[in-house]
Design a protein that fits this description.
mainly alpha, 3 strands, 172 residues, 47% helix, three-stranded antiparallel beta sheet, globular
């Protein structure tokens, strides 16, 4: 809905420092690794929460020597918001340095094909539990504006691309 879109805010620098503190995220992730990876992926890819939750270990790919993730709907339980949503996103160096590829490899070695195999779909959405968790997490950090949600990472990412002079057609 248009109104919900306008209501969403980007995160400011202060929010990002709090939300992406590796120590806090590691503590949160003792129970569930996705609590560590999803905020970092949201920040560095601009992908939607549901797109990230439904990633498969085989969505990791390399293009021209650059590690990337493929956002697509090639599996029966993967869906996209629209045709433009199908894309390949280079992985930010910080994700690689923090061990995302090793994490994906360990998931694969354990015989799972989804990157976050412990997520269960609620009403068809794998992002249900992460969304609820993120809401509690940001509130605990003092980020209480209801217009700041996980989707705010996407807005922040788009703002950053615009600030860097990336053309709108490519951002879209």
């Amino acid at each position: 809905t248009g109104s919900a879109k306008e209501a969403r805010l980007s995160f400011d620098r202060h929010d990002l420092v709090a939300l992406l503190d590796h120590e806090s995220l590691r503590k949160e992730a003792r129970k569930h690794p996705w609590r560590y990876w999803l905020p970092l992926l949201g920040r560095t890819t601009g992908a939607r929460l549901e797109e990230l939750c439904q990633l498969r270990v085989d969505n990791f790919t390399e293009q021209q020597g650059i590690p990337c993730i493929r956002i697509d709907d090639s599996r029966e339980d993967q869906s996209l918001k629209n045709a433009n949503s199908r894309r390949v996103i280079p992985l930010h160096l910080s994700l690689i340095e923090h061990g995302l590829l090793q994490y994906a490899e360990s998931v694969r070695a354990n015989g799972a094909d989804r990157l976050f195999p412990e997520l269960d779909a609620v009403r068809g959405k794998l992002g249900h539990a992460p969304s609820k968790w993120f809401s509690r997490y940001k509130t605990k950090l003092g980020i209480t504006d209801p217009r700041k949600t996980f989707h705010s990472f996407r807005h922040t990412f788009i703002d950053d691309l615009r600030d860097a002079g990336v053309q709108d057609s490519l951002i879209k």
